[in-house]
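Support request, priority: normal
Reporter: lab tech (M.K.)
Component: structure prediction queue

Hi team, I submitted a job for DUF423 domain-containing protein from Vreelandella neptunia yesterday, and the status page still shows it as pending. I've pasted the exact input below so you can check whether something in the sequence is tripping the parser. The sequence length should be 109 residues. Please let me know if I need to resubmit or if it's stuck on your end.
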Amino acid sequence: MMVILGAYAAHGLAARTTQAMVSAVETGVRYQAWHTLAIMIVLVWRQVQPLAGQRWVVALWALGVACFSGSLYLMALAGLSLGIVTPIGGVLLMAGWLALAVVALMAKQ
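Reply from support: The job had stalled in the queue. We restarted it manually and it finished. Here are the results:
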């Protein structure tokens, strides 16, 4: 899905909306891609060394991507303004990284 959205933002969206909205979709795609990769890495880590906090990391990132990237997509593609949802998504993404640090530190002990 993110590949389709990225391609659409690069080639078709500019005719429908402003450059700022195209940039918003590109940002959403970039954050979704990096966090999807990070989720997959944590899931592989969980297969090798299961730790309770890993589920929190994955859940925070998944919710963060849904809120952050999803709200940017809806804003650019449907004209919806979801206000506070985008920054909440960003906070969830950051909380996921903080949770990852905590899990990693606890795994060393």
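The mean pLDDT is 92. Residues 7 and 28 are 13 Å apart (CA to CA). Let us know if anything else looks off. Ticket resolved.
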